[in-house]
Write a structure and sequence with these properties.
heterodimer, A: mainly alpha, 2 strands, about 0% strand, B: mainly alpha, about 65% helix
């Protein structure tokens, strides 16, 4: 190995929790911008409502728990949860869905377990799953991407979006429709080629659905920037995207009527990139060691594909992440890294395996 | 005087201090599975109460005559007998409710709260005490089921006392209350995760009441009260 010779002074960069969280927030910007361009004001309203609710809930619970509010709110972790949740929820969903999801994220999934650093599950995904299984009608209505809107129809403006979200007024026809993954789920018996030709979501040589692929590319760019800034290692995302690619290649079946879609479609549709770079890289609820993260990511990718292809939900990132969170302590137990100065990897001691020993 | 103390203690044990659902955490399967409405909770709670009193009485009566080696099968046989009786009664008088509760009525046999009382109390105490223990433990379980059923029905379906006619005849149909309107629904609380969440909150509530009372007593006696301990998330305090 050829190490670069660096002479002193070696400058140590500050890498505190709030700095990391700020960088994560900045990295979601391209994705958030593309999403709001493609799907209208609903995205920004989601972000706004969920951020407000998360911060208020966090402050209230911290007060109840007699914890310093400024310090814990100042680490931006509640805002990151809120932003990830806001990006995951469908645009123009009623405000109470967002509020419920945000309260569950912060109150139940994070603070009840002891706050940041003690939560076994990813808070944003818990909130998302709670509203997904509770309000299926609201949660499965997605807005049509901008280029597919019917002639003369545009996304509702800020005022109209607010009326839809807060006052429950019904959006005009044509601005909601199926997502690409929805379409694949409900077009059993059609060849992939036929699905592509039959729906405008795949117009103009689009591989993963108009609007969706660009949002995913934007999240990929944001994620790569975070990787470059060494906020997380490559192991989690590579594990997840790798196993997702492998599975979709294995079952691609040359686009026959039983094919669940091409690898490219699975990589760039739904919440794949958001999940790979922003959700499974959560340092609290994921596995800890590099090898562990590779396995953890691969497990989540595998589960995403299984649920997408053969489960009853069109997208599966949230469910897969929660199942992966369950497995993380187990993975950690078997992937202890070699400690510096030792020639072999250590086995987990009884004390580490069972806290009650 | 002594006898009164014991009666009071048994009552307190069953309803609060040793509550089967909140402290012993026994019989969680029916607790979590059927408490989606008040009427389900009440139905199953009453059935369990009946079985518990019956089995406690019989176990207490035969406690001198059954050898230790075969006691568990004998207890289970007694419990199963009472479950069968309850099942037949429910089939006869509340058939619709019996069909809704389904497998969970026969499953009362496997409710460890009942076997636990037979083993821990009835097989060591006289008839009267065993019957009272069965009644109080059963009531404690029933009350938790009711609170759980009411909160889950209210949070999940936005109603209270839905379908009460299954248990109390046609007049009870008018008892239905819907404070949030007709189309309210929050599925998580109808599904099993809601049962876990609400049960968790009930246990936390009970523990916090106990802790507050404990601290207050200590203060009155002039003893020092420990502050809230910081929960460490890394490392172990030995």
């Amino acid at each position: 190995m050829n190490y670069k010779q660096i002479s002193s002074p070696q400058i140590h960069k500050r890498q505190s929790t709030d700095r990391i969280m700020q960088l994560v927030l900045i990295a979601t910007l391209p994705g958030a911008l593309i999403l709001s361009y493609q799907f209208g004001w609903g995205v920004l309203l989601n972000l706004f409502i969920s951020t407000l609710t998360c911060i208020v809930t966090e402050a209230l619970v911290l007060k109840l728990r007699h914890r310093p509010i400024n310090i814990h709110l100042g680490d931006y972790s509640a805002v990151v949860t809120a932003v990830l949740l806001g990006l995951a929820l469908p645009p123009l969903v009623p405000w109470w869905v967002v509020v419920t999801a945000a309260i569950f994220s912060i109150l139940i999934a994070k603070q009840l377990y002891g706050g940041l650093g003690s939560n076994p599950f990813n808070p944003a995904m818990v909130g998302y799953v709670v509203v997904l299984i509770s309000f299926p009608v609201e949660m499965t209505t997605w807005v049509t991407p901008i280029s597919l809107l019917p002639q003369g129809v545009s996304h509702p403006g800020l005022w109209d979006s607010g009326m839809i979200v807060f006052a429950g007024s019904v959006p005009i026809d044509g601005i909601t429709g199926a997502t690409p993954l929805d379409l694949f789920k409900h077009s059993k018996g059609l060849m992939v080629e036929q699905i592509y030709n039959s729906n405008r979501l795949f117009d103009n040589a689009s591989i993963a659905g108009v609007g969706w692929e660009w949002a995913n590319v934007a999240f990929l760019i944001g994620g790569l920037a975070l990787l470059k800034a060494r906020i997380f290692t490559w192991h989690g995302p590579v594990g997840m995207l790798g196993s997702l690619t492998l599975m979709s290649m294995l079952f691609w079946d040359a686009g026959s009527s039983s094919s669940p879609g091409s690898p490219l479609m699975h990589l760039f549709s739904g919440a794949s990139m958001l999940g790979a770079f922003f959700i499974i890289t959560d340092p609290v609820s994921s596995a800890t060691s590099n090898r562990g993260r590779l396995i953890y990511g691969a497990l989540i990718g595998l589960l995403i594909y299984i649920i997408r292809a053969w489960g009853s939900y069109p997208d599966a990132v949230a469910f897969a992440v929660l199942l992966g969170n369950f497995a993380a302590p187990f993975i950690d137990n078997y992937t202890l890294p070699r400690t510096y100065g030792h020639s072999q990897r250590r086995r987990a001691t009884a004390k580490e395996t069972d806290k009650n020993v | 005087m002594m006898g009164k103390m014991i009666l009071k203690q048994i009552t307190h044990n069953g309803l609060w201090y040793n509550n089967p659902a909140l402290v012993q955490l026994l019989g969680l399967c029916p607790l979590l599975a059927v408490t989606s409405t008040v009427v389900n909770a009440l139905g199953l709670g009453l059935a369990t109460l009946l079985v518990l009193i019956g089995s406690n009485i019989i176990v207490s009566l035969i406690r001198q005559h059954v050898s230790d080696a075969v006691r568990l099968p004998v207890f289970i046989m007694i419990i199963a007998t009472f479950v069968t009786i309850t099942e037949l009664l429910m089939k006869a008088y509340t058939f619709d409710l019996y069909q809704i509760l389904g497998i969970f009525v026969p499953l009362i046999v496997t409710n460890c709260a009942i076997l636990g009382r037979a083993e821990a109390f009835a097989s060591k105490n006289t008839l009267g005490l065993a019957a009272l223990d069965g009644l109080m433990m059963g009531l404690g379980f029933l009350l938790v089921l009711l609170v759980l059923g009411a909160s889950r029905e209210l949070l999940g379906q936005g109603s209270l006392f839905r379908d009460m006619h299954l248990l109390f005849g046609p007049a009870a149909e008018a008892w239905l209350i819907q404070p949030f309107g007709n189309d309210y629904s929050f599925l998580v609380f109808v599904l099993p995760p809601g049962a876990f969440i609400v049960t968790g909150f009930l246990i936390a509530l009970k523990n916090s009441i106990d802790q507050n009372k404990n601290n207050r007593d200590k203060r009155e006696r002039g003893q020092p009260v420990k502050g809230i301990k910081r929960v460490r998330t890394t490392g172990y305090i030995r």
